[in-house]
Each structure stands twice: as structure tokens, then as C-alpha cells.
Amino acid sequence: MVFGLMTLFGLIVMPFLIFIAGGRVLGPYTHGTSQHAGALSLVADYYTGLVHGSAVFWCVALGPAVLVLLIRVFLTGWRSLPTARRS
What H or E segment, with its residue span, contains residue 50? Predict the structure, then answer.
């Protein structure tokens, strides 16, 4: 269930976070001849990249889910380590 929620987060929320962060760091998003395209232009380009199978766009979409998965694997490994004996 967590993996599904994080995948939805990557598919729906990440493009808007990228738009906000990119706008602050890199300046306004341009789309073709439009110098001030909005967030929905970036979202449309994002989904177009996903449909075309671009690895970069899929890394962004699956990034939150993979991060949660890696954290869970790390914690499972950490918990399985033997604890030091206390005297």
C-alpha cells in the first residue's frame, strides 16, 4: 500500500514540486514559443515523457517509492544485526 501511495505521489505531486523548485532556481518554465508556460505545461510534458518511456521521467515518477523501499530494506537489515552484549 505504501509503495502504491508513493508511486501516486511521484506521478501526481512530483511534477508540481519540480515546477516550483525549478521556477525558483532556474527561472520560469518555457514551452516552445511561450516564455511563461504554467505548471500544466510542465505536467503535460512530464506525462508525454512517461508515455514515450523516457527513463529520466520514470526515475522521477518511481523515485519516492524506491526511496521508501530502500529505507525499509536498510531498517530491516539494521534490525537484524546482533546487538552488543551488555554486562
Answer: helix 39-51
